[in-house]
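Why does residue order matter? Because the sequence determines the fold. Keep that principle in mind as you read this record.
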Amino acid sequence: MNALPTPAAATADDVLVVDGLRKDYGGATVVDGLSFSIRRGTCYALLGPNGAGKTTTLRCCLGLTEPDGGGITLVGEPVPRHARRARIRVGVVPQMDNLDPDFTVTENLVVYGRYFGLADAEVLARVPGLLEFANLAHKKDARIGELSGGMKRRLTLARALVNDPDLIFMDEPTTGLDPQARHVIWERLKQLLARRKTILLTTHFMDEAERLATQLAVIDHGRKIAEGSPRDLIRAHIEPQVIEVYGDGALAWAERDGRQLADRLEVSGETAFCYAAEPARLLQSLERTAALRYLHRPANLEDVFLKLTGREMRDEA
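Structure:
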């Protein structure tokens, strides 16, 4: 598939501009001419299967990995040349929490602030607001080992805000969390967006991207294969209605009726996915087959993702 067009030239509202980014490892191209830009006060999501180049892209943008081609402008600074200067205005929530277990919640924030040249007194003045934002005020003196997984994730988010950043990089921010903790994180991210903060998000949760992202790009094999708002991508790439058929006889029904009645049919394991603009005839057929179980729903971003990148499992690169 051909690369999508390079974005327009950077404007004053562009917090991050990536133009033709390329990175090779051992003769293999991991990021292949990737271009996108992020406007201030928005959430931009990078979606892709394992090994698509998402984390490498983030590392290049932060100046942690030297690119082999292309240009990056981060908060107005060229990267990697002025990456250290740019990172002072950036917050990072990594995939894995790397909080210091030897320090309390408050001490983790104070020590992290020193990396940005902030005086302890300045960070301590910010701590009450940060802990209130993370709903951790009651844990300010707790050791990290006393916190739940959701609490650690919220503290990692609060820590990323110590320097009052213009842009926050979030690499899989809710991986490993239960649904309640994920929803709490989502609400905090929405609060940041309401405060005109800017977020670059990578996630494997399509509902997360659909809820939070203003714009998103789907990347695969290091190349951008689709870009737009969640709603626009669903409208452009997928039929509006989906019927998932499963249970005994599902595959036989799919070959007999589903393939003729659906606009498009996909089979994965023991489930048949029927995509249609008008699902009435499909539903009538299913109602006549009592043994079958099915779910009728509107199309979503996960359907788009699977159509563009495939349903096969992939290992981490």
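The first strand starts at residue 14 and ends at 25.
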